[in-house]
Amino acid sequence: MDFFNEVKLISSVEHKNLVRLLGCSCLGPESLLVYEYLPNKSLDRFIFDEEIGNVLDWEKRFKIITGTTQGLAHLHENPKAWIIHRDIKASNVLLDSKFQAKIADFGLARSFEEDKTHVSTAIAGTLGYMAPEYIAHRQLSEKADIYSYGVLVLEIISGRQNCRSITSEHSQNLLTLAWNHFQTGTAEDLIDPNIRSLQHRKQMLRAVSVHAGVPEPPAVDVCVSADVVEGGGATAGADQSAVHGRVDDGVRL
Question: Is 60 within 8 Å of 47 (Cβ atoms)?
């Protein structure tokens, strides 16, 4: 089902910030999708690897943020098919030779009529990127993607993976850490040391404040185990997301 879903959805949209499908085959024991070749592979290998993290300076990271924004806005506003990706994360953002971002992996994506505000569906996505109200109420809308996008932006700026920030019961996930820095006026401490500079300081701090400061962190831990999610244990009080609103393809920071 994911195979045919991906073929159908990715074939219905075309944008410079969406990975391009070249062909597919469902003959034989395995089904295959053939996409354009992107030499720099996925974003996560750069921002979460200390050895090559300095390859992405702020200009490149901002370009990636902008490209991801534009690709996501196209999915949400495309007149042919209103598409919710459901799995926006660093490993699903691929990079070409010039570090232009392209959103990939449409296996979990859903399309539905534009006049609907949401659809009820089973939970699907990656822990740490799923909006708590989506986990709680299983109602899917574009806000689920916007929440995931906000987590991704904080990861790009900080060089930290959201749920991997948790090493003990006293540790904080990235969203809580970002909120605490925002509240105490120490947002600069959240920025990846590889990209800290006076030249772009205001722009980086603006990016942190936009994605960390409105509103408070989720009332439930979005990094709970898969068992808790499947068992419905992550529902109490989960009526807010740390990032909300509309993705605008014109990024202004």
Answer: no
Distances in Å between the alpha carbon of 188 and those of 33, 57, 212, 219? Answer: 42, 16, 12, 25
Q: Where are the domains of the chain?
A: 2-230
Count of beta carbons in the 10 Å neighbourhood of residue 229? 18
Q: Over the stretch 88-103, which tens digit does the pLDDT of each residue have? A: 999 999 999 999 999 9
Paired tokens of 149: 């996008």
Q: Annotated catalytic residue: which of 87, 105, 145, 221?
A: 87
DSSP strand pairing (93-95 vs 139-140)? unpaired
The pLDDT value recorded for residue 221 is 52
Letter string b/e over residues 189-211, b meaning 16 or more CB atoms within 10 A of that residue's CB: ebbbebbeeeebeeebbebbebb
Specify the range with the lowest mean pLDDT, choosing from 40-54, 164-178, 219-233.
Answer: 219-233
Buried b (16+ CB within 10 A) or exposed e, 113-123: eeeeebeeeeb
The question of whether 87 is a catalytic residue gets the answer: yes
Cis peptide before 215 (omega within 30 of 0): yes
| 240 Cβ contact partners less than 8 Å away, ≥ 6 residues apart | 132, 133, 215, 216, 218, 219
pLDDT tens-place string over residues 224-242: 433 433 444 333 333 333 3
pLDDT value of position 53: 79
pLDDT digits (tens, 9 = 90+) for 16-51: 999 999 998 888 888 888 999 999 999 999 999 888
Q: Quickly name the fold that domain 2-230 has.
A: Transferase(Phosphotransferase); domain 1 (1.10.510)
